[in-house]
Amino acid sequence: MRVLTGIQPTNNLHIGNLLGALLPAAELQKDHDLVMMIVDYHAITTLKDPAALSENILFAAAAYLGAGIDPEKTILFQQSAVPAHTELGWVMQCITRMGEAQRMTQFKDKSGSGAEKSSVGLFTYPMLMAADILLYQTEGVPVGDDQKQHVELTRDLAERFNRDFGETFMIPKPMIGQGGARIKSLTEPEKKMSKSAASAKSYISLMDEEDIIVKKIRSAVTDSLPGITLDDTRPGLKNLLTIFSLITGEGAVELATKYQDAGMKSLKDDLATALIGYLNPIQSRMHEALDHREELKTMLEIGAKRADEIASKTMEEVRKKIGVKL
Question: Does the predicted TM-score (pTM) go above 0.85?
């Protein structure tokens, strides 16, 4: 089964990304044909500092390696290095109806009241994502709930193209993530942990130092209610128990019982200690990768060549089907 996933390049990758995307991907590569992208063209829907973007692309590659991705098993590459992505993205725009595009909730969420000032790229982002997926005849796409709608659009576009121009694309299925997909902001536990959050206190970065992790966990928003319980009405506490459970393998209910008498301070201190120990080997692998940047670049170039072999075949078939290939 071919599975495709990707992550936007940023130096603010956090434990939600790690537990919800990177580590599950490392597991998927054991039994699946895995294609992994650093989606740099998706990252420019809002203008970025060019030097920072270049640095973040390498950081994302290092994060993949730190999480255990094996570039010998997995096709790991930079999206922009495969021209077929933007070419098929245009074709997908041309078969997408305005009503479909306007129903995409993520554009509304990200643009807010400033939709008229948002980039057209932010609006057409789902069509490029559809191209990313369809180019590789992808069968499964690991996504969180916030991206499921985009995979459903991809399925609709693939079915429409196959109907109108002949069988061309595999119809992908969303693989809704568990565990890490539930990790929330440390400062606003009703919201998902986000690398674009205004405050760095809201997330634990993959490269946060030990003292920073301790401070962030200690200041995490909980409540003043007595006892330790796993309860939806206590989102901050539930979030901490969820993180603790994911990094230790111990059940969240069991952890709540364990700390019932010890209290919130002990829970936070022990969570911080466990998290530091959990991240240490990942951080070490990331530092090692970033100390050898030319090797990182070469690795991405090799991955792009492998990806291009697949994508170019799909794109050639698309050109024939729509009539532009003479």
Answer: yes
Catalytic residues: 110, 192, 195
**Following DSSP, what letter does each residue of 123-158 receive, concatenated?**
HHHHHHHHHHHHTTT-SEEEE-HHHHHHHHHHHHHH
Helices within the chain (DSSP H only): 15-17, 23-31, 40-43, 50-66, 84-95, 98-102, 105-111, 120-134, 145-165, 210-218, 235-248, 252-258, 264-290, 293-322
Which class is 207-287 in CATH? Answer: mainly alpha
Residue 193's φ and ψ, nearest 5 degrees, are -60, 130
Token pair listed for 253: 């209910």
Sheet holding 2-7, edge to edge: 75-78, 33-38, 2-7, 140-143, 173-176
Residue 274 near residue 244 (C-beta atoms within 8 A): yes
Gap between the Cα atoms of 140 and 233, Å rounded: 34
pLDDT for 114: 65
* Residue 278 near residue 247 (C-beta atoms within 8 A): yes
Asked if 56 and 62 touch (Cβ cutoff 8 Å), the reply is no
Residues in the chain predicted with pLDDT less than 70, given as ranges, are: 110-115, 177-181
Which pLDDT belongs to residue 180?
A: 43
Contact 248, 241 (CB under 8 A): no
Q: What is the CATH number of domain 2-182+293-322?
A: 3.40.50.620
**Where in the chain are all domains bearing CATH 1.10.240.10?**
207-287
Q: Which of 187, 163, 99, 87 is nearest to 130 (CA)?
A: 87
Q: Rounded to whole angstroms, what are the CA distances from 27 to 67, 70, 206, 224, 288?
A: 10, 11, 19, 39, 22
Task: Return all residues near 88 (Cβ < 8 A) that are at least 6 apart.
Answer: 131, 134, 135, 314, 315, 318
CA–CA gap between residue 250 and residue 18 (Å, rounded): 18
- Nearest-angstrom CA–CA distance, 42 and 66: 23
pLDDT value of residue 300? 98
- Locate CATH 3.40.50.620 in the chain: 2-182+293-322
